[in-house]
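User: Batch of two.

Assistant: Item 1 of 2:
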Amino acid sequence: MLSYASGVSELPLLGETIGANLERTVARFGEREALVDVAAGRRWTYAELDADVNRLARGLLARGIGKGDRVGIWAPNCAEWVITQYATAKIGAILVNVNPAYRTHELRYVVEQSGLKLLVSAESFKTSDYRGMVTSIGFAEVAYLGTPGFTELFLDGDDPDMSDLAFDDPINIQYTSGTTGFPKGATLSHHNILNNGYFVGELINYTEHDRVCLPVPLYHCFGMVMGNLAATSHGACIVLPAPGFDPAATLAAVAAERITSLYGVPTMFIAELGLPGFADYDLSTLRTGIMAGSPCPVEVMKRVVAEMNMGEVAICYGMTETSPVSTMTRPDDTLARRTETVGRVMPHLESKVVDPDTGRPVPHGEPGELCTRGYSVMLGYWNQADATAEAIDAARWMHTGDLATMDAEGYVNIVGRIKDLVIRGGENVYPREVEEFLYTHPDIADVQVIGVPDAKYGEELMAWVVMRPGAAPLTADDVRAFCAGELTHYKVPRYVHVVDDFPMTVTGKVRKVEMREQAVGLLGLQDVAATRNA
């Protein structure tokens, strides 16, 4: 038997826009709680949330924002993020998610590449001076949260007209790190993300009685699709415990808000389990949740089930380009299935594992490239037709670049990566993007960036550097200083190794596999590597 599976379902796909779906939920559950911003001490029922969404939608229209215009959102988790997400959907504007950790170099690229017409932005967050960075790139069309420039966008009047919107219209651009040195804007439709969120919620049995805690960032699909859209399509309540991840604030919110579902990447759950006084938090209302973003250690999953009362916790696998979830475990799967695999194909989707050279499906149990097809596959990369054609083939299969196996029951196991991708603490980093930036250093003649094992984050970045003649060797501190304010913190190499040249194949290609092997020895990471590969 060949490695192919299709997701059967008695439930049809939702053939409607995000705005129309929200209206249906409001009609059914208008008086139920929809959104809680714990840090701000604010709450909305579905009727109140919809009223604020409509008021902002009207304000955007009055500002000259219409269908197809790009509106950026650059802020940590907050109620305004959620309201902006649904308001843009109501008028058909395309929401452009800007990573809260971005610096000037990355912000400028996203603003220009997407053609932003308006940016909704926080003024600052942690050490990030958003206002200063926006000013430095000369972008003037900004509405800062908490200022009159944003609050004046909320207008009373007639509800926005959604009659000219179609569910296949683009509604969201999310930037992924690019193998060509720059991020690519995965462009997603109402149909893509509404259905993905809906079926994620279906598979963990969401109802209007669920309360979903989201310590994961909203700018990722994890937050805005698997979280927000899964909740609102079922009448569940979204709870934002803090602007950024805080393990104590998260567990305090679980206890105080009687949370039934908790999300996180493995490192988040590890931090929560490791809190002093962990046993003092009342987690008795928890039932389920989602762990995704990077491989989950078996012992962590066992502790989450046993000590956090999350007996129905699910593992999800996917990528931004597939809206994002392609495979998912089910509540009745065994613990072994939920720790050793990433589940089975989602309803209404197809998966196959193919030989990367021939494109033909491989037999069950044999490794190959995992591909996904169906409603979830993105419309394409924004204004990058060539990159889109490289990722999506003529039969509309999205090539993930991940090496996987599929067993006879359709369970998928991720065993490696074809693409030169590093996953640090759940964040995807393509070394080429970091390399392109480091090439701008005046003393660097050549550079290669690799991932090396790390006990905390799974992987860390290491830069191998060839210096220009006469230049003094760079240290890790030198490289960090050069990247400060320009690259997001998780893209900054932790290690730097100065060399005269790189290991090469006979055809002149850099052997990153050999570099990684050498790095493990140089850094004394043999035990970590052995644990990661076990």
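Item 2 of 2:
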Amino acid sequence: MKKGHTSELYVAAVISIGGFLFGFDASVISGVVGFIVPQFGLNDWQVGLVVSAPTLAGIIASWSGAWIADVIGRRRALLVLALLYTVSAVASAFAPNYQTLVFARFVGGLAFASLGIAPMYIGEIAPREKRGMLISVSQLNIVLGFSLAYFANYFVLHISQSDAVWVQTLGIDQNAWRWMLGIEAIPATLWLLFLLTIPESPRWLVMTNRLEEARKSLARLKPPERVERDLAEIARSLSNVQEKFLQRMREVVLPAMRLPMMIGVIAAIAQQVSGINAIFFYAPTIFEQTGVGTNAAFAQAALIGMINVVFTIIAMFLIDRIGRKPLLMVGMVGVILCTAIAGYGFRQASYEITPEVARTLSSEISLQTLQPVVGIKFTNDLDFKNALRETLGDQGMREHEAKLTQAAININSTLILIGILGFVAAFAISLGPVYWCLLSEIFPNRARGPAMAIVGFFNAMTSFLVQFVFPWELSNLGSATMFFIYSGLGVVGLILLAWLLPETKGKSLEELELVLSRT
């Protein structure tokens, strides 16, 4: 690499650390839920809120993030977000009560704006032949964040059960969940430092009429012979883009933006109603429903992270070879089939606490207390949970649910594990990376910020609703119905995207603007 030259891959990797932090922040809470429910005495809606608080903030971030990135620049905006992630991690770890924890996670959710800014930034610096792969680096970092959080949770859980002196000295045995949340401060601080080493987006600099700075930025990213040519092309496409963000909001309602906006909104909703964030945010909780126990549930959650990483890497190599649309269609079919398989697996389950099993539980729950449910066979998890709730009370049921489910269930847990892992794999090669790639491609330069703000709002709102209602769904609809709903919504998304989405592979952003405006 020449002195002063910054590799496009390096820039993409640094920007995408924000995706890693999102993934870590999103999935680390999955290991915390089981600890804070008894500690703070939370009900279904309170659990849903503490899990979904960052995504609720992300709804604000989806609007303000793109606007801030247009006002102060992509790089400065990301520096602010890195600081928010750091503050949130520290505050969450030291939260004294439920309300403080919700607020601290809300602050971190404001940094979710990085999900929209990162692909925008990468799309603006990447050459057309590598754009799909470089944008997929952001998705890879997201899934690496998910995966590392699962492993971190499992590691903290494991050492918290140790008798080692250092574990007790650091309070890990009594405050495992606080350590799970606080670890995020380390990568957040590192991201803040790495962001200082990358240039500003040349497209944003041209947009703000800072041509000399744009030329210097391009010189750091492109070979010398391409600098003036690329600068002229950007200037032509942004000839009137100096208008303010709110003024450019008018662009999204023009007839030429109708198809791009429809594709963006449908893809945003389809990505979330697939149920992916129910899986990522509540993985140990879902696996505990199969009766494997807490430790095994954490281990299986870590397996989700591994599958996610492997298939995201596969998608990175395929997205610029076979195209966005074929990859999306194949993956969505897999999503639909695998969620249906998981639903079928739960539908076949039955639950019965035999007298022999009840005696093994007597050290924690008295036989007299359990007597009303002993020897009764339940054909679905909903009836079983309702019976436990009537017998033990709501709080008692929550405290002992995992152990009682493990003791009572008769289920093909392997089938459900295959369904969930298959779902994650299918999502990782389709709705995950392809969605973010499409967002950076389908909107014209002039309207990209406002359009991504609107699409990001729909994505964040749908994600919030999926996470927020999940505990209630689990308690009131049951696991099988929940997965069948995800499968049915996936069918709707597949049909709409198969009908509307053109192929975007191998076209410059300027060429795509012409294609989509004429469709």
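The radius of gyration is 24 Å.
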